[in-house]
Amino acid sequence: MTRIPCLFLLLAACGDATPGGPPGKPKRDDYALPVRVVAPVRGPVEDTVETQATLESERLATVYAEADGRVTERLRDLGDRVGEDTDGGTGLVLARLDDRDLALALKDAEAKLLEKEGRVDELELEQTRAARELEQAKVALEEAAAAHERTKVGLADGTISLEENEKAAFASKLAASKVETAEATLDKARLGRELARAAVEQAVVARDRAKLALERATVVAPFPGIVTWCGVREGEMVKAGAALYTVEDPQSLLVYADLPVRQAVRTAAGDTVRAGSAALGLATTGTVVLVSPVVSKESGTVRVKIAVDPAPGFKPGLFVAVRIVTETRPDALTVPARAVLHDDVEGAYLFTVDDGNAPLRRLATRCRGAATRETAEGRVADAGGLGGLRCAHPLVLELAYAALAPAVRRAMHQRAAVALRALH
């Protein structure tokens, strides 16, 4: 077992000097209180920023009804998990509304779509037939035109009569008229096909809308998680836009910490974070995700977003202590944390002692860590957790000090302050 040296500091407990005696002579009820001293050691020390915050789910959603109807099935209730196919493959399904009318509307839309698609097929056949007739009419026109040219030559050399020439000319004109008719028929078939295709597209839109309306009758969670609120009962009527469920993902935990500017400037994205609840015995780690680039006008703080690693016992809404590690020094000179006192003006400090003497010199510390404090070379006194003492007070520990009456303590502090000023 390591022995801890113990010094005795003689402190006046109360009262004035003995009447008639030399001025300043202490009374007989002075107290000699033990003060433990420890030596600094080399070891790791962390510079941290500490705060408290409430755990939140990064993925949190309120699920609303997207259709009017009566609730026929409520598949999830408060505390149920969603996204796990444990109930016959329902997965993310939370509830179902009466969808019979919507199912019939979908069937009607699908039937109309089939009808429109059939009309397109008919018009495509008509277009093909009209195109074939046009090609035939063009061939007939070429033949009639060639025959007319031959009759013209025969009429000129007297081998063809005028009547035969006129017949050939009429046949050529008739063939040209048939070409024009075939072209008009083909154009009409093409137009009809395009209109039919547009009707099919409209029918597809109507079918998709009917299908979407039917799907909206099934209430589905947007992501896997836990139901944290349920506001629906089986058999009741709901309107589109009514809030039915709240779903949270317990695996996507985060906290938002509002830090003073002097602490926020020491914090950066990627810093390691330790979070937990000492009362519940919970602990986990995390990472700083984002440090806001602006300072809040209302509070004068900087918001820091921290992603918290999921761990057993950590749930949304849990109030946790957060410690952000901003710097780590593996070989710093350290003393026990309880040896460090704090002053609102001058910051953290501790007392050093010379061997065999009472505390004489106050030494300011340079870094505040989680369990240790960095200091300079020299022996230090253990503060014993009395962080409320101020710079004029000596290091007084438990033992006899705890048993003293408040009035005695106050008087002792006053005398000790005078003694310290005389020593300095």
Tell me what the structure shows.
With 424 residues, the protein is an alpha+beta fold. The chain has 5 helices and 23 strands. Strands 3, 4, 13, 14, 15, 16, 17, 21 and 22 form a 9-stranded antiparallel β-sheet that branches. Strands 5-12-10-7 form a 4-stranded antiparallel β-sheet, with no helix packed on it. Strands 9-8-6-11 form a 4-stranded antiparallel β-sheet. A hairpin with a 3-residue loop joins strand 21 (367-368) and strand 22 (372-374). Helix 1 packs antiparallel against helix 2. The longest helix has 58 residues, at 100-157. The protein is elongated and about 155 Å long. It starts with 5 loop residues before the first strand and ends with a helix.
Number of helices: 5
Overall 3D geometry?
Answer: elongated
Structural class: alpha+beta
> Cα distance, first to last residue?
36 Å
Helix content: 25-40%
Which sheet architecture does the biggest sheet show? 9 strands, antiparallel
Question: H/E order of the elements?
Answer: EEEEEEEEHHEEEEEHEEEEEEEEEEHH
**Cα Rg:** 47 Å
Average pLDDT works out at 77
